Amino acid sequence: MTAFDTVMSEFSMNLVVQAPLETHADAGMLDVLAKLAGATSMESLSSHVWRCKLVSATMQTRDDITAQALAAGLDVAFVPAGRHLHDFKLLVMDMDSTLITIECIDEIADMQGLKPQVAAITEATMRGDLPFPESLVRRVALLEGLDASALKRVIDERLQLSSGAEAMLAAVQAAGLKTLLVSGGFTYFTNHMQETLGLDFAHANQLEIVDGKLTGRVLGEIVDAEAKRQTVEETCANLGITPAQTIIMGDGANDLKMMAIAGISVAFRAKPVVRAQADIALNFVGLDGILALFD
Questions:
Q1: 96 tagged catalytic
Q2: What was the pLDDT predicted at 8?
Q3: What is d(CA 266, CA 79) in angstroms, rounded to the nearest whole number?
């Protein structure tokens, strides 16, 4: 049970419904969701965000509402009433397919004409079908001999922030939270993101480069699920806070161990195994969707 689950069992809950900016929620569906939650109507917080206060939050109610919302292309979350963003002290983010839209290793592989092979391994890993360390070793080995300039090309030509990332980070930093980017990807990219976005901490794998070419090996210990969890715990200890004061966001099986110790875990455009275990799932809205969860 996460800290979030404990709060959920002790305090009254609000239901928050969000629609992507490019769509509009059907009023009839909002009424359906409100009734399922035991409310008569929804309060409009913006053109794309609605809330029902102090609703029924039984497991059956949550399952019914989640299923209806998913089919309608809406994101829903049950959140404790009275929670504020500044109640938390650290935002932790996975990088690939969470903070950014791409899987960097797949795009590097594309420079070698090997994207399909590498992407297939990546997909199996994200589903939890393949241990991450084995997966990373296999994928990086395929990159042997690639000119290291391909890494910069990925940044220049393909790397994009996920929708809502900048708005989310601006609000989080304004609220005084520290930020940690922890990735099973590579330091070349996490260092770039840390510098570009003003993040406080970053941790990832280091590709070995010799004479300007990738050797197909990773230097040092692989940043797998356990290493991600340890990084979060060590960062919390250094900040003098507990994991219960963190918001942790991820999308793949490699994120589950760190998400399990979070104050709130957020699955962003995630694999089913991750959505099932996260406190909050954002399937349609951007990363800034977390901001609507707080009073």
A1: yes
A2: 47
A3: 12
User: In angstroms, rounded to a whole number, what is the distance separating the alpha carbons of residues 128 and 139?
Assistant: 16
Q: Active site residue: 26, 75, 87, 96, which one?
A: 96
Judge contact between 225 and 255, C-beta under 8 A.
yes
217: left (phi over 0), alpha (psi -120 to 50) or beta: beta
Contacts of 208 (CB under 8 A, 6+ apart): 214, 215, 216, 217, 218, 219
- Give CA–CA dist 9/58, Å, rounded: 10
Is the pLDDT at 31 greater than 60? The verdict is: yes
Strand partners, 18: 49, 75
Which pLDDT band, with edges at 50, 70 and 90, does 1 fall under?
very low
- Rounded to whole angstroms, how far apart are CA atoms 243 and 92? 10
Q: Which of 94, 106, 110, 279 is catalytic?
A: 94
- What does pTM read for this prediction? 0.92
User: How many CA atoms are closer than 13 Å to the CA of 71, on its beta-carbon side?
Assistant: 9
Classify strands 13-18 and 75-80 as parallel, antiparallel or unpaired: antiparallel
- Assess whether 129 carries a catalytic annotation: no
Number of helices (H), then strands (E), in the chain: 12, 11
Distances (CA, A) of 202 to 56, 120, 167, 194: 39, 27, 20, 7
